[in-house]
């Protein structure tokens, strides 16, 4: 019996050694860790124009294809801008056609009358230019006032929401009365700013109306001065030069209006955010109804064609670790 037990132990020992040798050989040249994660390049997704988010078409961790729609902004304002640009282009093209087909009218006058009519026309043109600049300045002021009003209205909405939230908190004694009073003051201040902003918009609109009327009056004066000059000029070549100059100006204006229309259409296209490449969405903050600014990051896109694993090993594991192991 003792001899059998001894033989059995010897056999078990040999088997253990045989098993241990390959196990040791395998694990002695390998290291493992469960502290690791997959990393990759991150592409921020942000709008090129500002606006209110109309719909979000994807979710976090969702796979998307290149060109797939991700977010849609409210396109109403940009559609209006496209329509306005189209109308302005049509008007400019009509002006160009009119200037191209205009026939010079000339009459024989004295040189003094010609000089006088030329001076009157130049003065009228300067008046038109000044009036048009006034319109541009008034329009810029109106746009600025509207933008400021929208911002103040947004601030008021936020302040009112904060006040409602603070009201529930102060009722529960979760915040101090001082904090609640500060929220009330902030809401009242924002309301006052909105009222002031509305007044500024009305004032800017009134100034724009006045400037437009001045432009009409100046253009009427310019038209009168131009007719007088045409009637006083004797040289047909001079008339052709004036007509050509007007035509070139109309062409340049039409070109500018066409560029404005192209830009308006681009801005309208920018209201739809699309995936630039295939990948997975992460860190999504976009939600329907929120107002976003141009360049504001709404989510991130991680392309899956170039990913890698970042593994963290303990210092004791790094002692014998080698490249290629």
Molecular structure report:
Helix content is 64%, strand content 12%. With 325 residues, it is of the alpha+beta class. The strands form 3 sheets. It has a 4-stranded antiparallel beta sheet with strand order 2-9-7-4, with no helix packed on it. It has a 4-stranded antiparallel beta sheet with strand order 6-5-3-8, with no helix packed on it. Strands 1-10 form a two-stranded antiparallel sheet. Helix 2 runs antiparallel to helix 5 and helix 3 (111-171) runs antiparallel to helix 4. The longest helix has 61 residues, at 111-171. The two termini are 49 Å apart. The model is unreliable at 103-110 (pLDDT under 50).
Largest sheet: 4 strands, antiparallel
Low-confidence stretches: 103-110
Helix content: 55-70%
Strand content: 5-15%
Q: What class would the helix/strand composition place it in?
A: alpha+beta
Would you summarize the structure shown here?
The chain is α+β, with helices and mostly antiparallel strands and 325 residues long. Helices cover 64% and strands 12% of the residues.
Key phrases:
325 residues; alpha+beta; four-stranded antiparallel beta sheet; 10 strands
List the SSEs and their pairings:
Layout: H1 2-27, E1 36-40, E2 43-45, E3 51-56, E4 63-64, E5 69-73, H2 76-101, H3 111-171, H4 177-232, H5 236-269, E6 272-274, E7 279-282, E8 291-292, E9 299-302, E10 307-311, H6 315-318
Antiparallel strand pairs: 1-10, 2-9, 3-5, 3-8, 4-7, 5-6, 7-9
Helix pairs in contact: 2-5, 3-4
């Amino acid at each position: 019996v003792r001899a059998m037990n001894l033989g059995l132990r010897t056999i078990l020992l040999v088997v253990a050694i045989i098993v241990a040798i390959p196990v040791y050989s395998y694990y002695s040249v390998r290291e493992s860790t469960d502290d690791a994660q997959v990393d990759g390049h991150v592409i921020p997704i942000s709008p090129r124009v500002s606006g209110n988010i109309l719909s979000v078409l994807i979710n976090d961790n969702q796979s998307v294809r290149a060109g797939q729609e991700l977010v849609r902004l409210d396109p109403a304002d940009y559609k209006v801008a496209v329509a306005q640009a189209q109308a302005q282009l049509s008007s400019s093209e009509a002006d160009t056609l009119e200037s191209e087909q205009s026939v010079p009218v000339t009459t024989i006058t004295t040189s003094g009358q010609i000089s006088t009519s030329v001076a009157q026309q130049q003065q009228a043109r300067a008046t038109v230019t000044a009036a048009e600049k006034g319109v541009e300045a008034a329009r810029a002021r109106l746009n600025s006032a509207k933008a400021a009003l929208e911002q103040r209205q947004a601030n008021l909405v936020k302040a009112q929401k904060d006040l409602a939230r603070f009201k529930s908190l102060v009722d529960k004694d979760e915040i101090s009365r001082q904090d609640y009073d500060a929220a009330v003051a902030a809401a009242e201040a924002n309301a006052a700013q909105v009222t002031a902003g509305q007044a500024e918009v009305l004032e800017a609109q009134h100034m724009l109306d006045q400037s437009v009327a001045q432009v009409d009056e100046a253009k009427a004066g310019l038209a009168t001065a131009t007719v007088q000059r045409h009637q006083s000029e004797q040289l047909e070549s001079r008339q052709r030069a004036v007509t050509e100059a007007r035509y070139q100006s109309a062409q340049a204006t039409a070109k500018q209006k066409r560029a404005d229309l192209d830009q308006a259409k681009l801005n309208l296209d920018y209201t739809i955010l699309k995936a630039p490449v295939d990948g997975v969405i992460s860190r999504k903050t976009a939600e329907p109804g929120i107002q976003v600014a141009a360049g504001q990051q709404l989510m991130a896109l991680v392309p899956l064609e170039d990913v890698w694993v970042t593994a963290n090993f303990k210092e004791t594991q790094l002692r014998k670790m080698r490249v290629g192991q």
